[in-house]
Amino acid sequence: MSYRESLTKYIANFVNQLYVSGVRNVVISPGSRSTPLSLTFAEYDRFQLWVDIDERSAAFFALGMAKETREPVVLVCTSGTAAANYYPAIIEAHYSRIPLIVLTADRPHELRDVGAPQTINQLKIFGDYPKWFHEMALPSATVEMLRYARNQAKRAIQTALRPNCGVVHLNFPLREPLVPDFTLQDIWGEEEKSLTLRAVSQLSQPNVELLIDKLKNKKRGILVCGPQDRTELGSAIVDLAEAWGIPIFADPLSLLRNGKHSNKWIVEGYDAILKSKAVRDLLELDFIIRFGAMPVSKAYLQLLQEKQGIEHIVVEEGEGYREPVGVPTHFLNHCDGVHLCRDLASYPIKIDEKWSANWRKWNTYTKEVLMEKQDRLTEGLAVIGIQQTIPDHTVLFASNSMPIRDVDTFWFSNQQLVKVLANRGANGIDGIISTALGISATDKHTTLLIGDVSFLHSLNGLLLAKNYRLNLTIVLINNNGGGIFSFLPQAKDKSKHYELLFGTPQDIDIQKLAAAYDASYEKPENWTNYVRTLENSYQRGGLTIVEVETDRTENVSWHQQKWDLIKQYLLHELEGSDDVL
Amino acid sequence: MSYRESLTKYIANFVNQLYVSGVRNVVISPGSRSTPLSLTFAEYDRFQLWVDIDERSAAFFALGMAKETREPVVLVCTSGTAAANYYPAIIEAHYSRIPLIVLTADRPHELRDVGAPQTINQLKIFGDYPKWFHEMALPSATVEMLRYARNQAKRAIQTALRPNCGVVHLNFPLREPLVPDFTLQDIWGEEEKSLTLRAVSQLSQPNVELLIDKLKNKKRGILVCGPQDRTELGSAIVDLAEAWGIPIFADPLSLLRNGKHSNKWIVEGYDAILKSKAVRDLLELDFIIRFGAMPVSKAYLQLLQEKQGIEHIVVEEGEGYREPVGVPTHFLNHCDGVHLCRDLASYPIKIDEKWSANWRKWNTYTKEVLMEKQDRLTEGLAVIGIQQTIPDHTVLFASNSMPIRDVDTFWFSNQQLVKVLANRGANGIDGIISTALGISATDKHTTLLIGDVSFLHSLNGLLLAKNYRLNLTIVLINNNGGGIFSFLPQAKDKSKHYELLFGTPQDIDIQKLAAAYDASYEKPENWTNYVRTLENSYQRGGLTIVEVETDRTENVSWHQQKWDLIKQYLLHELEGSDDVL
């Protein structure tokens, strides 16, 4: 058998098995060494192929698709530094537990370490971040080796999907010739359906009686739901809250802030409520049961830090120890949260009714303060405008660092069928546009809330929007620089090095960039125009950039003013109360 | 002593020692965790600081500066995926042996692996690519620990500069508070000058007599100079060629194609001459002595592959085994090429005069064919136009993949004081604009020859050009896609998947992008306007984008036509010759 025939069949069997095992989307970056892979994916004709010249964007795009579909997405790139450009997205995928299959083409062994062009050491190039790295054998089409190729494809998918979901990296040494021969017969091999539809965690059995025993006589509890991606878990938490009469702190990425479920016990204003240390000091908290990852809220993190005496239970569907402040914690790893909620609901835990009622009252007040509208646009109103106009069955993607915090503060619980997503594995400002486009590519019009630094950082993503005419409404909060730093102690140094190191104004005319990528561009000057602009973008589809110009200093004082109002109200409530909570 | 005082002194001593040890340029990307480092670099006030929001661009920018100055450049970024964005440039720096000092800020140990925000595992995040990775101790200002901080700074510089030059990565765990207190007295510590000005390789002593013995009776030899960065090595090779009467194949990155030295023995047309297998078959080659890395030319690589019987000597100033075709090779590692050339020149090696004269004749003919001008612009004429107009004491930076090959073919040896540079460690198309800007930032007007895919890939680099008003003339060969692939076997598949996977036209209006980054933009339609446009850009300074629109198919046939002419001529020469060479 010629090498070309071996190459053709080996790669074709591998590709075929990926499809049979459930892969549907393949993101390819152009290159020569990867020709056997990319041509075979194209020839197979049943994948949705996406081609992006920038591997960094490509990987975040794949991440976005996998985030929304919860199915593994395949990445293909050529040899050399191409793969290194995947690294930021791979790290994000690791921490946010997103399944990705990375296929890198490589020179064969005899061309490594000898100065051959575009050849680098690709073995374990992503360090410990992939769940599985495997250097594939050289192409061969014996019965055994075709079985091997299929086995690796199957195993890659299963490994990526097994909790915690994550990244698999296969490196392909490929000799020339690189162009497969698709005129050959029977190259695809026999399809083998996997017995495992979706790998599940080996579930552990939590000791519910002991857990309940620990909560006995603890009357001031909170359920917390951080970032997580199971809709059914959200419902189960709501049912538990109803059974116990206990408030839920619902992170914007918990899937709990939107949807048809009851929002009676949902407290979404906890970040604003907990901002003040004086307020936190007056709160007496007995226990927290948390589902999902750590919430976005820094005030919540501070609360936890200050309440070291509480019972703190963290429910992990996979494996993890995500508790950054060192409070003694019971981690329930590999625990099915839905089952646990049902079990717990059957136990009669008595939550202090005043405690629960207060949280509902405070939350209502807080929302009123935050929701106050004015004609002049602010970063908060930008979020409220999206909530008011965003269509059902679409996605809001919030960038880091300020936008996700603004969403935390201003995205109130509602009945809309909208999903809120973000990259909260490593909280980077890189690859944001591409991630949002990856979500959009799953046929969901996506709204991206993003700051100007992050926008410029991930600008190359717009090539995908243009080339595939994806539906993305970008709300670009342009305060000409890094807005988040204005809230940090570094801002006190403003006089001297602040603008150079933290402000970093780029003074880019967004309208001109929009023109280069064929985007519709609008810059509404007030609330009314803003809402209309958003509505138009949803009706029109395609790529729209809505620029909202704000001022970093003004933004801080606007936020501060609201937080002060809320703080005064709460101190009055708590200090005036007979039973100090 | 307060933690803040410890932090301030620890970082200040480290930063001070970097300066004393010779660092002058620091490239910072904004972030919060890195505040102690970035503020201290700014406060020290003697560094040239460069701030770039995109770490990928920042790292290539630092690479460009270090490439031109041959001094280590410092990179500073915050925790999280920021560092991962450095990875492509770090790999390029490793393979092209460029000194970089990477300083990453990190959360302290108690905030790692516990779901703290923007926290990833940064230990050995760049795998084996850095020459040295060190996790710094937590800040402390005891006498011992200040000495430790200074020692690490000194050692970082020495390690990066010791052959092979490369990357050092120091990871800084940093607790809050993050803002140093510069009102404190005596924070910078005592300067300690290093005894080592620049680390040198432990030189090995080559056995020159044995080498000469191996070349005895070998009359058809070639000196080859691949990419290398020592001007004095170039002169020594020229002197050796003169002494022996032996041709030099001079790669465009050898520093030999430009300068005041004699170009009598320089053959720069060898790539075009060696393109045809029929021609190569007729050549009888006895030996090659190569300096520097493997040349860009693929034809040269093929020649080597086909002449397994020759004596093949590779002189490595550092350590390396850069010989990708498997021809038996004597590697002279850690060998001072200048000394070796002088030694060799004193031995009477007799090169066949006809052989040497023929190469000079063929080279002259080849250059005539290649140099032929026409009014319609081609990719070759784009190079010739640059050579005709580029000022002395400036740099031409050639992108991958097509531009460096076009420079190889069309950049003829000349007396200009121009340096030609490229990223030939891993030959990526990533970070090209930023690398060129890094060179420009050393006060050299830089001309960048780049294709459209590479231009769009590294577009973010233009933020640096704009923010620092750097002098860069970009000659953008726009053939709307990946031109290199048209020369490869994949092009035969053009009918079906070619444009999707390899052509990858992006259809971006470059003029609009230019406007967004405040660049002057020109699109000359013919030779005369092209030359004038280049001249204007050099006079004006700043950022100019000169778009040269070409057609990928036309380009291939234009190149092919010239190569055919040269092949016919050479076959006639070689076959008609009495003594077949």
From TrEMBL, chains A, B:
Single GO biological process annotation from the record:
menaquinone biosynthetic process
Q: Which Pfam families match?
A: TPP_enzyme_C, TPP_enzyme_M_2, TPP_enzyme_N
Q: Which InterPro entries match?
A: DHS-like_NAD/FAD-binding_dom, MenaQ_synth_MenD, MenD_middle, THDP-binding, Thiamin_PyroP_enz_TPP-bd_dom, TPP_enzyme_TPP-bd
Question: Which stretches make up the Menaquinone biosynthesis protein MenD middle domain?
Answer: 188-397
The Thiamine pyrophosphate enzyme TPP-binding domain, residue ranges? 433-548
Keywords associated with the record: Magnesium, Manganese, Menaquinone biosynthesis, Metal-binding, Thiamine pyrophosphate, Transferase
Q: Which residues form the Thiamine pyrophosphate enzyme N-terminal TPP-binding domain?
A: 15-124
Family named by the database record:
Belongs to the TPP enzyme family. MenD subfamily.
| Subunit structure as annotated in this protein's UniProt entry | Homodimer.
Q: What does this protein do?
A: Catalyzes the thiamine diphosphate-dependent decarboxylation of 2-oxoglutarate and the subsequent addition of the resulting succinic semialdehyde-thiamine pyrophosphate anion to isochorismate to yield 2-succinyl-5-enolpyruvyl-6-hydroxy-3-cyclohexene-1-carboxylate (SEPHCHC).
Q: What is this protein called?
A: 2-succinyl-5-enolpyruvyl-6-hydroxy-3-cyclohexene-1-carboxylate synthase
Which gene holds the coding sequence for this protein?
menD
